[in-house]
Protein 1
Amino acid sequence: MKWQNVFGFVTVVVFAMSMLACNAAKEATQTAHVTAVKAMVIRSSDQVVSHTYTGTLEGERQAVIRAKLSETVQKVHVREGQAVKENELLVSLDKTGPSSQYTQTQALYQNAQKNYEKMDFLFKQGAISETEFDGARTDYEVKKASFDAVSRLVDITAPISGTITAVPVDDGNQVMVGQVLATVATTARLRLKFGVNPEDLPTFAVGAEVVVSSQSMPDTAMGKIGAVASSADLTTRTFQVEAMVENAQGLYRPGMFVRVSAVKARLTGVIAVPSSAVVVLDGKPNVFVIQGGTAHKRTVELGTDLDGHVIVNSGLTVGDSLVTLGQSYLDDGFAVKVVQTEEVSR
């Protein structure tokens, strides 16, 4: 009898432990199916739809000075960023080089000048005829014009007043005909050129404003469309657009590549969600919303892409709790635990 009591006690204990183990396993299983997610509360907002292109800046007035002789650079007189005036000396080439003809032309000019001065004196004294004097003067003027032309080939000056935006040569460099020696540009206003796809062309009408930005600049600049090509470029199939950009502070410089944004439309009271919140299931865009700790799949109709966000035309309503992280691990009816909630959509 005593042995039977012990046996009964052991049976009760084993049964109790089995029930506890089953309950623990059930709880563990339930916990394992709860997915941690991040969510956001849907709010309506106003959005701006923009087109973005890339373009290149030039000076409003710009002069690219190229070598007209193949000679050695004797001296570079300016540096990049320096302000210069019209006719200021920029670069000097070797005057004794074989292709300059500077020394020979200078000697002929100086001889003609001396002869002209002598003939001028004699003519005023009545010692020579007017024909002889005119011949000496003509010879002097021709030799002077030749010397001036050669001088401009070896002493290169600024054709306009502005800022040196590029000096791609150094003292001692051997340059070839056509090689760029310097670029001078005005920078208070810059000329922006970029190509636009045919379907976006109406956005870039003359007078429309654009916003210019660069990764290397903290501030944006405003511009206004000044010209739109009436025909497409045969190579790129885009339409050339030109805008004038205000640059009074000198933040932007000619030669820079920049981003150009123009407003296509302004949307009011729309729902914009992160593009990453949308998952494609069975070929259709879907999102997951949370109700009572459970994820529910909803098929949505998408609208305009907003560079990282997208407009949802249908399938969501204001106040919905949208899963923004963890949706790739969900299916309809999964239990979820929200670890972070955002209050705004964008």
Note: The chain has a mean pLDDT of 87.
Protein 2
Amino acid sequence: MLAPRSRRLSLLTAALAALAVVATVPQVASAQPPPPRIDEAEVRTFLASWLATQNRGDFAAYQAHYAARFFGVRRSGATTAAFDRAGWMKDRGDMFRRAMTVEASGLQTEGLATTAVLRFTQTWASGGYKDVGPKQLVLVREGGALKIAREEMLASRVVGAATAAAQVPRDRFAFVAEAGGGSYVILADGEADWAVGEPELLGSAHAFAARARVDTSKLTEALVGWQGREVTVFDGVGGPCRARVTGLWLLSRFEPHFGQSNQWLGQGDFEGEPPASPAEIARQGFGNGATVVVGALDGCKGVWARAEGRATPPSRMTPDAAVQRQALAAFRKLPGYKAIQKDFKGNGHTGAWDAFDGAAPRVVAFGAKDEASLVAVSARAGHGCGDFYGEFWAVWEVRRERGAVKLVLQTDVKAPGALFEPVAAADVDGDGDVELMSGSVLMSRVDGVYRVVEDRTPPDFDCPC
């Protein structure tokens, strides 16, 4: 059961809003240069040691790799859970009772003054179970040594399970992001060394966003061709809006570890040190999160855009009371929901987990002429970090047969994936099936269930526990 990804806002549902915050860092120049970045060789040595403790089953040595303040997210096939340090070690202790093989490939590292971020593909196997997926570790210094402050399995694919759908052509679908009051259409992954000139801070020390001009010689001809191109922007509820791409930029976004934010602001352990200026924050942070090539729009705010082909997306609506009741009843009968309910009661709680502590499921539908064709239910409850936290979602096709409504499930009954709250829908690839999207995740139907096609959620390096 996944805990909130941040003490402030869930990036899944509020990433774009967070990035719109104007930088509030005092315009004070630092009196000293920023501390040196954590050394990559040290990081690689640390990773090798961490892997070795698991492969030889040395739990005591494994625990020594973790910081006192830690947040971990585990995804393994049908299960998602989040823990503080004590909960993580209890969960891992059970895992260490069996021999395992853990491998890391495709390592990428990024370093700041107070944190280092490692991303790699992890292959984990024990007994007859094996899964593969991207993993992220956030390292900090504690007592002079590197320790893991955050660990997250970003996705888990059980070997032999179905794969996700192919990516939709960019001219038919592109996410729209907002940063610093402007709108940008996300075109492709980028590299920080493609930047021309100094980056400009658009977000804040707590929700980093910065942009820099991109060297177009590094881009494909197709990407360069987006300059001056007209696009149609959709928001899920209103009519389409026409905009033009006025220029190409690199946009870098992430949520920093609290230690890094404190260093930039001269707070916490850095009390008394001069805060960094917005320009310095932009220089230090640029390229350490998700860096993408974007096209600046001369107007229009929304969720997604397309440059070619017409689209008449179904409207977002509140389904009628009868459909809502039917969807909620079906939601609570799903095996994935029941698994969370069992855990909820096992922790001494009563009632329904999705109503815990004032929570309530969210029901939204998409359709035309006030008649729903898809209905989705999503729920989250609790606080995590040692306390209960649960999340689950599902979507159904709404069929009407002889005056009765029939709901046909379109998500995995046990593991639909990380919580997804759709805000817009459209048949973006023209295959007759409707895609669903949040502000940063695109879902497409494959073999009867919705799977992630594209995820533009800015990475979260913070430790909320």
Note: Residues 46 and 146 are 7 Å apart (CA to CA).
